[in-house]
Amino acid sequence: MNNVKKPSIIILIFSIFLGMFMAGQFKQNTPTIAPVTLRSIQTTKDNIDTLNKEIEDLNALLKEKEEQLNVLESIASGDENIIDVLNDELEKYKNLAGFEEVEGPGVIITMQDNMAEGPFGENFNSDVIHDIDVLRIINDLRCAEAEAISVNGQRILSMSEIKCGGPIIRVNGKSLGTPFVIKAIGNPKLLSAAINAPNTYAYALKHIDQIYIELTTEDNIRIPAYNGKFNFKYAKPLKEGD
Fold first, then answer.
1. pLDDT digits (tens, 9 = 90+) for 222-233
2. In the 8-state DSSP scheme, what is residue 144?
3. Is residue 188 a contact partner of residue 107, using CB atoms and an 8 Å limit?
4. What pairing do the DSSP bridges indicate for beta strands 102-112 and 180-185?
5. Which CATH number fits domain 102-116+123-223: 3.30.160.270, 3.30.70.1880, 3.40.50.720, 3.30.450.20?
6. Which of the four pLDDT bands, split at 50, 70 and 90, describes residue 80?
7. Which of 42, 47, 88, 229 has the fewest C-beta atoms lying within 10 Å of its C-beta?
8. Cα(196)–Cα(202) distance, rounded to whole angstroms?
């Protein structure tokens, strides 16, 4: 009887050790799964948005290169004149740079200082339009996809300076006084919302500081070309492939 039980006990002990060994191996091979948090979800979403933006940029670049290739093929086959193609390119880039007069639908914004009389000793600094006020409104119009902007007839470029000069502001080296008339070409609804919607900078100027701001939408607005000059002293163009 003892001889029968002894092998059974040995098999039982061996089975226990074998089970413990296999359980340990299974635990080691089980991958560690990080907990899903709102922050990790947002990070993943941001990465996806970044990749989608890169894909859009690459598609736009591919389309541009395909158009250039089509033009070159047309020139090679004799269907296009190289002078006409270069003139078209020149006009396009002059338009983008602001060196061409443009017209189209948009909005006209008229701004004037608050002329109402306040209590004696009140700080009148907020009653006067400053350079930052004009600059903030121009930035809001750009965010609303304005394609061309001018202030009192001065075309606004990426290099245009807007700064205070006492009771006036200087734009493109020219002294401008109130009223300031800002013209912007683009989608009139988007441009109007950038000025009239609550929580916008222009809305606060009008309803808190009591600055006179009037906006009208127009089917056709003319914005003059930039007539100044500027030279690049430090920035140099990179050749394609650098």
1. 999 888 776 777
2. T
3. yes
4. antiparallel
5. 3.30.70.1880
6. low
7. 229
8. 7
| Residue type present at position 155 | R
- Compute the distance between CA of residue 212 and CA of residue 181 in angstroms, rounded to an integer: 12
Three-state SS at 152: coil
HEC profile for 64-81?
Answer: HHHHHHHHHHHHHHCCCC
Percentage with pLDDT > 90 across the chain = 31
List, edge to edge, every strand of the sheet that includes 174-176.
162-165, 168-171, 174-176
* Distances 231 to 1, 179, 197, 225 between C-alpha atoms, Å: 108, 31, 39, 17
Domain regions of the chain by residue span: 47-97, 102-116+123-223
Q: What's the first-to-final CA gap in the chain, in angstroms?
A: 90
For the whole model, what pTM was predicted?
A: 0.62
Over the range 127-137, which residues count as b (16 or more CB within 10 Å of their CB) and which as e?
Answer: eebebebbbbb
Contact 131, 177 (CB under 8 A): no
Q: Which of 233, 124, 123, 110 is nearest to 180 (CA)?
A: 110
Q: What are the respective helix, strand and coil percentages of the chain, to the nearest 5?
A: 50, 20, 35
pLDDT score of 120: 43
pLDDT attached to residue 1: 47
- For the segment 146-163, what is each residue's pLDDT rounded down to a tens digit? 999 999 999 998 888 888
* pLDDT tens-digit map of 105-118: 999 999 998 877 65
What six digits make up the tokens of 115?
């002329």
